[in-house]
Design goal:
This protein has helices spanning 3-21, 23-50, 101-157, 163-192, 203-220, 333-338, 375-393, 397-401; strands at 55-64, 68-71, 76-81, 88-89, 94-98, 223-225, 230-233, 242-243, 248-253, 259-265, 277-282, 290-298, 324-331, 346-352. The longest helix has 57 residues, at 101-157. It starts with a helix and ends with a helix. By secondary structure, it is of the alpha+beta class. The strands form three sheets. A six-stranded antiparallel β-barrel has the order 1-10-13-12-11-14. The model has no long low-confidence stretch (mean pLDDT 82). Among the domains are: 102-219, Methane Monooxygenase Hydroxylase, Chain G, domain 1; 259-307 and 319-366, Elongation Factor Tu (Ef-tu), domain 3. A hairpin with a 7-residue loop joins strand 11 and strand 12 (290-298).
C-alpha cells in the first residue's frame, strides 16, 4: 500500500469514528429521514382524502346505444335498396322497396268495395224513404176504407143498403189494416239498416273502410321506412331477395342518444348513487376530449348472471372472482354532436362520489317513453284521409258539401 492510500484510509477511519462519536449529528440524520417519511405519508393522506376518496374509476367501460333492427312487415321481393352501410338516414326515409303488384291489386279491390258500400247504404236510404211513402199510402187507403164503411152503416140500418156490400167494406177495412201493418214492417226493416247513423258511420261502410285501410297500409309497407334517424349498419338484404315478414334487413344506429355502460367492481359500488356527476374519456380522442355525464341507473345483477352460461357456484368447483355490475351513464348530447362516438368503443370513467346521499336503485317508474317514432302514425293518417276521399266521392254532391 502506498503512502497516499494509507493517508486516505486513516482519514476515512478518523471521520467515521468522529461521526460515530457525534450523537447530535446522527439524530439530525434520523430526524431528516423520519421527516421525509412523515411528509410523504401526509401528502399521500391528503391526496387520498381530497382526490382518491372522492371518486371511483374504471376502464372497463364501453359506449352503448340503440340498435334499431329494420325488418320487413310484409312478405315480398326486393326491387330497390336505397341505403347502404355507413350512410346517414332520416326518420321516415325509404330504405328498401318490395314488389307491390299483388298489394296494389288488393288495394284496388278494397277501394272498389268501399265505394260500393257507400252506394249500397245510399240505396238503403232511398229504400227506406220509399217504404215510408208506402206506409203513408197504406194509411190513406185505410182511412178511405173506414170512411166508406162509416157512410154505409146507417143505410144498412135503414135497409137501404145490402148487408153483403157492407160486409165487403168491412173486409176492405181489414185488408187496408193488414196492408198498413205490412208497409210499417217493411219500413222498420229498411230503417234498421241505416237508423242512428249517417252514411260514413254506417256499419257496412265502416267495415269496408277498415278493409281498405288494412289494404292501403299493407301496400305502403312494401316501402320499408327508417323509424329513427341514424347510420346504417349490418345491411344483409340484396336485390331479388324474397323476404318474409319479420326478416331483418339492416340496422340503423342513432348516434345522438348514446350512453356508457361502466362495469364497476362490487367493492366500488358502495358509494355510487344515481345522479352523481361523471367524467368520461374515450380512447378515440384520448385525453383531449372529456364528456360530462351522470349516473342514471345501476344494473339489477352482475354480468355473469345474465351471461349465456351463468356460473354455477353451488357445484363445489368454485373459485372466488370479483364480480362487476354495469352502471348506466348518460352523456351530454351536445358534446356527442361535437365529438361523435360509436357504440362499442372503450372509455375511461370517473364517478364523483362526494355526494352519496342519493338512491342506489331507481324507485319510480319511467314517466316518458324510452324511444318512440311517429313514422307509422303518419302512414295510418294518410290511409284515413284516402278513405275519407273515397267516401266523399261516392256521396251525393249536397251531402259531400255538408
Amino acid at each position: 500500500m502506498s503512502a497516499t492510500e494509507s493517508d486516505k484510509a486513516s482519514v476515512d477511519a478518523n471521520d467515521s469514528g468522529m461521526a460515530a462519536k457525534d450523537p447530535a449529528k446522527r439524530r439530525r440524520v434520523l430526524l431528516i429521514v423520519a421527516g421525509a417519511f412523515i411528509l410523504a405519508g401526509l401528502c399521500w393522506f391528503l391526496l387520498w382524502l381530497f382526490v382518491f376518496s372522492t371518486r371511483v374509476k374504471t376502464d372497463n367501460a364501453y359506449v352503448g346505444g340503440n340498435q334499431v333492427a329494420i325488418s320487413a312487415q310484409v312478405p315480398g321481393t326486393v326491387v330497390a335498396i336505397l341505403a347502404d352501410d355507413t350512410q346517414h338516414v332520416d326518420a321516415g326515409q325509404v330504405l328498401v322497396k318490395l314488389d307491390s303488384t299483388d298489394a296494389d291489386t288488393r288495394l284496388q279491390q278494397a277501394r272498389s268495395a268501399l265505394a260500393q258500400a257507400v252506394r249500397g247504404v245510399r240505396q238503403q236510404t232511398s229504400s227506406a224513404s220509399s217504404a215510408d211513402a208506402q206506409v203513408a199510402t197504406a194509411r190513406l187507403a185505410l182511412k178511405k176504407a173506414e170512411a166508406d164503411l162509416k157512410r154505409h152503416l146507417p143505410l144498412v140500418a135503414a135497409q137501404a143498403e145490402s148487408p153483403e156490400i157492407v160486409q165487403h167494406m168491412r173486409d176492405g177495412v181489414e185488408q187496408a189494416q193488414a196492408a198498413l201493418s205490412a208497409a210499417e214492417a217493411q219500413s222498420a226493416a229498411a230503417h234498421a239498416a241505416i237508423e242512428g247513423t249517417d252514411v260514413a258511420q254506417n256499419p257496412a261502410v265502416l267495415q269496408a273502410r277498415a278493409n281498405f285501410r288494412a289494404a292501403w297500409v299493407a301496400a305502403q309497407r312494401n316501402e320499408i321506412y327508417a323509424p329513427v334517424s341514424g347510420y346504417v349498419a349490418e345491411r344483409s338484404v340484396q336485390l331479388g331477395n324474397s323476404v318474409a315478414a319479420g326478416q331483418q334487413l339492416m340496422t340503423v344506429v342513432p348516434l345522438h342518444d348514446l350512453w356508457i355502460d361502466a362495469n364497476f367492481k362490487e367493492s366500488q359500488l358502495r358509494h355510487i348513487r344515481i345522479g352523481q356527476p361523471v367524467t368520461v374519456t374515450s380512447d378515440l380522442y384520448g385525453g383531449d376530449v372529456e364528456y360530462q355525464g351522470k349516473v342514471i341507473g345501476l344494473g339489477a345483477g352482475t354480468g355473469s348472471v345474465f351471461s349465456l352460461l351463468p356460473a354455477q357456484n353451488a357445484t363445489g368447483n368454485w373459485i372466488k372472482v370479483v364480480q362487476r355490475v354495469p352502471v348506466r351513464i348518460a352523456l351530454d348530447n351536445q358534446a356527442l354532436d361535437k365529438h361523435p362516438l360509436r357504440i362499442g368503443l372503450s372509455a375511461d370513467v370517473t364517478v364523483d362520489i362526494r355526494d352519496d346521499k342519493g338512491s342506489m336503485l331507481a324507485n319510480t317508474p319511467a314517466q316518458q317513453p324510452v324511444a318512440q317514432t311517429t313514422v307509422y302514425d303518419q302512414m295510418a293518417s294518410k290511409a284515413d284521409a284516402e278513405a275519407d276521399r273515397i267516401i266523399s266521392a261516392n256521396l251525393p254532391h249536397t251531402a259531400a258539401a255538408n
